[in-house]
Write a structure and sequence with these properties.
This protein is mainly alpha-helical. It is about 85% helix and about 0% strand. Helix 1 (about 1-25) runs antiparallel to helix 2.
Length: about 60
């Protein structure tokens, strides 16, 4: 559970950072928000896929 808490924290931080950088790149607020959320979800998906591979024994 602690590992997922850290992953969620990192994903939210990374999503916020990419959203801010997207906004500074002169995107609209809605584009920046969508991009930040999608990056956070992508990071969580990569973490879940890594866990599945480790449980399957394919390091």
């Amino acid at each position: 559970m602690m590992l997922w808490g850290k992953r969620v924290g990192v994903a939210v931080t990374y999503g916020a950072l990419t959203g801010v950088m997207s906004r500074l790149w002169e995107d609209t607020w809605s584009d920046s928000l969508t991009f930040g959320i999608s990056m956070a979800v992508l990071m969580l998906g990569v973490g879940a896929a890594t866990d599945i591979r480790k449980r399957a024994g394919k390091d």
